[in-house]
Amino acid sequence: MPHLRATYKFAIIILIGLLIFLSDFFELANPLSNEIILFAICFFKVNYFMRFVFRQIKLTAHKEFYFHEFISFIVVTILLVIVSYCIDYYCLFRIDPGAFTVIIQRNIATELISFFYFSISVFTTAGFGDVKPNFTTAQILVSSELMIAYFFTILVLANILLLRESFTRKNRM
């Protein structure tokens, strides 16, 4: 799958999120600097994601459009976004447990599952309200995931054929 190879940079962003978690877990940096790093990564991620999606569409504009490639692109991209934000939410929660409400603190696995569930509900805009961001930082992270979800579902999926045609015309000129 060519889309898996193209997503290695996004995987690096996820690994950086894990490093932030470890930095906070072992108290290698103060919480404010971890939060600032998390913020910077979030904004880099939004920019990278949008560029990545358009670049992938542009690269495939002059090729045959196979359904299985399109589905694999969508699945991989959505999973990367959801997992990435899950880790961001978890890191923010570890930095400040008051950032989110109704997360039951039992162990790392249940907390990660809760944030994975929360990230899915944010991405799909279901937003059940059982997990709620309390602080500005958490609200900004949630807003950025909502913007990516909106961008991906409305602007890309709904207009994929128009985008491909546009890139094909541009390549011919």
Keyphrases for this structure?
7 helices; 77% helix; 173 residues; Helix Hairpins; mainly alpha; two-stranded antiparallel ribbon; 2% strand
Give a written overview of the molecule:
This protein is mostly helical and about 170 residues long. The chain has a single domain, classed as Helix Hairpins. Helix content is about 75%, strand content about 0%. Strands 1-2 form a two-stranded antiparallel ribbon.
In short:
It contains 7 helices and 2 strands, in the order ααααβαβαα. It has 173 residues and is mainly α. It has a two-stranded antiparallel sheet.
Work out the helix count: 7
Q: What is the H/E order? A: HHHHEHEHH
- Gap between N and C termini: 30 Å
Structural class: mainly alpha
Any idea what the radius of gyration is?
17 Å
Question: Would you report the number of β strands?
Answer: 2
* % residues in beta strands: under 5%
Mean of the pLDDT scores? 80
Q: What secondary-structure arrangement, pairings included, does this model have?
A:
Layout (H helix, E strand, L loop, with lengths): L1 H5 L1 H18 L5 H30 L6 H29 L4 E2 L6 H16 L8 E2 L2 H22 L2 H13 L1
Antiparallel strand pairs: 1-2
Helix pairs in contact: 2-3, 2-4, 3-4, 3-6, 3-7, 4-5, 4-6
